[in-house]
Amino acid sequence: MSPSVHRPLSLRLAALLGPFLPAALVCLGVLLTQGALQLPFVTPLETPLAEERPSLPHRVRHLSADTAQELLNRLDQVWDAAGDGVPGLAPSRFPADLDQLPVADRKVVFFRSLLPHVLAHNNRITGERARLVGVSERAANGVGLGETDRRFLGNLADRYRLGLEVTEPAAQLEVLLRRVDVVPPSIALAQAAIESAWGTSRFALLGNNLFGQWVFDRERGMAPLERPDDANYSLARFQGLGDAVAAYLGNLNGFSAYREFRQMRRQMRATEASLDPYRLAEGLSNYSIRRDEYVREVRSVIRSNDLTRYDRARLAVPGTASLL
Q1: From CA 219, how far away is CA 272, in angstroms rounded?
Q2: What is the arithmetic mean of pLDDT over 311-323?
Q3: What are the tens digits of pLDDT across the range 260-301?
């Protein structure tokens, strides 16, 4: 499967309206659209304080390869060696000739390259959430928050975009418990496949942009082919696949457009043993102009590739076995 690249709503509108409206109106439409729907774009992420930076059980190490075939071979080796776990080895970018592999092999490379990064960042979020729950329980029991806890909450509030209107610790805890949570790997992998044409799009290869994320700065990103000369937006550029995953998770957990997604996830946490990616996908309708059709496509990619099996995946810690 090698679908055409699905572009975010803003870019699609610019392409459609460009021939008929002056460039200034096109840019205005882009900005208004982004403001209304808060479609994927990137803002700088705050770096946690050293004592507040959660440790990962097993960090993803770089796996290099010059060609797609070489990468496929190396991935086969490291995954076989990991047994039932997911190896903490993955490339930081996709090879330029990824589209030359047969479809089945291309999917293997795509999922095996991306899954370790998703699991590693979900591990980071899980660590943040565990500490957050601890702070919440202490506060509920009448234990006053110390300076370290307040700094921890303030740091999370910045990174999860709570805004200046949410400054009291009690209010921060309430909002953060909805935002600081993982995204099922099945959803992340499906959206990355759709938005990056299975890792073969121009933006995926040149800037590791797997999720169609924008940045409103001409100099920081990559220019869309249809962009007017005076437009100030571009497609975000990332240092590696892991950085793209981190920004994507930050978008789903931070922007108001995905409030429904987070509310559904919160309700599942309260009543169910695990997150249901098919139901959660309903909260992604604002990710695309195609709305319900986009939700159906996400679900279809999950179902046709049996991606829910990865929701049980764990990074393998050296010397131990992790069930998949």
Answers
A1: 45
A2: 68
A3: 999 999 999 999 889 999 999 999 999 999 999 999 999 999
Phi-psi sector, 284: left (phi>0), alpha (psi -120 to 50), beta: alpha
Report which residue type is found at 116. P
Q: Which residue has the tokens 């071979």?
A: 73
Residue type, 266: R
- Domains (range + CATH), the chain: 9-312 (1.10.530.10)
Euclidean distance between CA atoms 58 and 77, whole angstroms? 19
The C-alpha atoms of residue 110 and residue 306 are separated, in whole angstroms, by 14
Spatial distance between the Cα atoms of 103 and 28, rounded to a whole number of angstroms: 40
CA 61 to chain centre: 19
Identity at 90, one-letter amino acid code:
A
Q: Which residues pair with 79 in a beta bridge?
A: none
> From residue 186, how far is each of 92, 114, 254, 308 by CA, in Å?
20, 11, 20, 5
The C-alpha atoms of residue 116 and residue 314 are separated, in whole angstroms, by 9
If you ran DSSP here, which 8-state letter would residue 39 be given?
-
Torsion of CA 113, 119, 122, 127, to 10 degrees: -140
Q: DSSP characters for 244-290?
A: HHHHHHHHHHH-GGGHHHHHHHHHHHHH-SS--HHHHGGGGGGGSTT
Tell me: the pLDDT tens digits for 233-254? 678 889 999 999 999 999 999 9
Percent of the chain with pLDDT over 90: 63
The residues with which 62 forms a beta bridge, in sequence order, are: 90
The one-letter amino acid at 42: V
Of the chain, the end-to-end C-alpha distance in Å amounts to 25
CA dist 248 → 187, 235, 241, 320 (Å): 11, 13, 11, 30
Beta strands in the chain (DSSP E): 61-62, 89-90, 214-215, 234-235
Q: What is the mean pLDDT of the chain?
A: 81
Q: What's the pTM? A: 0.81
Question: 3-state class of 118 per DSSP?
Answer: helix
